[in-house]
Amino acid sequence: MMNERKILEKLPDLLPVNSRIATGAGDDCAVINMPGNNQLLAAADQVIENIHFLPETPPEDAGKKLMNRNLSDIAAMGGVPLTALLTIAANGKDNAYIERFISGAAQAGMVFDVPVCGGDTASLAEKGFCATLTILGEIPDGKAVLRSGAKSGDFVYVTGCIGNSFYSGHHLHFVPRLKEGAFLRDHASAMLDISDGLLLDAMRLAASSNVSLFLDLASIPLRAGAVVPNAFSDGEDYELLFTSPEKLTAFPGDDFAKLSCIGRVIERGESLLVDKNNLPIKMDKNGYEHR
Amino acid sequence: MMNERKILEKLPDLLPVNSRIATGAGDDCAVINMPGNNQLLAAADQVIENIHFLPETPPEDAGKKLMNRNLSDIAAMGGVPLTALLTIAANGKDNAYIERFISGAAQAGMVFDVPVCGGDTASLAEKGFCATLTILGEIPDGKAVLRSGAKSGDFVYVTGCIGNSFYSGHHLHFVPRLKEGAFLRDHASAMLDISDGLLLDAMRLAASSNVSLFLDLASIPLRAGAVVPNAFSDGEDYELLFTSPEKLTAFPGDDFAKLSCIGRVIERGESLLVDKNNLPIKMDKNGYEHR
User: Fold this and answer.
1) Looking at chain A from residue 67 to 126, which residues have their Cβ under 8 Å from any Cβ of chain B?
2) What pLDDT is attached to residue A12?
3) What residues are paired with B137 via a beta bridge?
4) Edge to edge, what strands does the sheet with A21-23 contain?
5) ipTM here
6) pTM value?
């Protein structure tokens, strides 16, 4: 069987780049050099029935989720979204279902003035439904916030609340943190969006930056119904995890998300994540792995 | 069950656009306005096991096909390809298969200096394999060749040979007509790539341009093993169908594809396609419909 994480780790080796690609596979978005003063951001993500949503989920909501999880990747670079392309492969769904899914994605995009400009539909050989959305965005040259920029001494922050995303319905109805991401373009040293749980995504940020993170577990902002293990392993939060040399207390405006400082960046040690007793925070064997 | 063609016809209504989108869904690529002197081209296409390739097809070849059919969409606009993103959803395939597929796509891209800069892999709930590739390209402002520009009196041309793509293996091993497309940017009035058979794609070009086409059936260049009905309905040729006010006899170089004039553009009549006896050329009830 396919092991998704192993493939993702191998992707940079499988995918040669050229001078147009400033940042290739491995961050929230690729960064592509363009004429003019902006770079292009590009990312692609999928939703699959029975994995990312249920057969009884309204297709508009599934389409909205697909758009918003891609917009979240643009937010995680500090970028401004531009447009999207959508493909659907399905078997056992009628046209009304497909059209409702497409409309859900398209309307969620237009909330942020992001039109779906193209796509494709095709039949699966077996029953099922999967959809891919590719998002494009823009960012001033050299301003993309990568996962690799965290420095020892930086503070560690998250937006919003973490954990219990699935049962609370957050995974279908979250707001991508585009406003916060654009603000953080000038403040964050490293950033990603939390899609696979705080534990795994914090490890990814630490590994990319070649640092370790001290996390104050008591400071992690929990969604209603969540305890710390939920925050670590539930996933699908689509909040921003970022580091900054600045001591920030809140975003500049009432209409921004809540901001929480949850730790500090420390020199790379044996463990990527440690708690206040300097004990390693480990991946539970039941820890969430995004399929 | 899903009727793909009906959804595609409805897409422009489902997908609102904004001023960044010069051409939205409905052509081979979307055309996106960018700072500077180039527009961005974007298209997304899929391959699905048991539909676009077989379980025994080497995964490298399936990956190459996915890349090349997307490159063909860039060619059909007269553009230059830039980069691509690849997503895979699979169940019942091991990592080696997935990696071979990815490598096949990536290496086919690098033949044209087109790196795959990002992507995603995920598990399908049921057995199967589908992959989406989104291609990005560039074209000087206003130079994209759309489907809608054919004028009465123009000549109708195709590159290469048509028909019998599947049994000949052409569908896995064709060369996308990028060089020809880039040349035609300054010569063609309308263009698309033939993916669903000459009949359906010629009808699309005619309908987009609000013209009819007279086709000289005897002039259609047939691939070995094909007769005219194959050319009309087999599909997966990935040759360029285009119109031009110029009388062209060949491309300017030995390393270009064969060029055949197969008809003329005429005023829009009752039938989109007519033969030399002015009789309508119709879609056979068994005519190829791309699933």
Assistant:
1) 82-83, 85-87, 89-95, 98-99, 102-103, 106, 110, 113, 115-126
2) 79
3) B41, B81
4) A21-23, A30-32, A38-48, A128-140, A80-91, A116-123
5) 0.94
6) 0.95
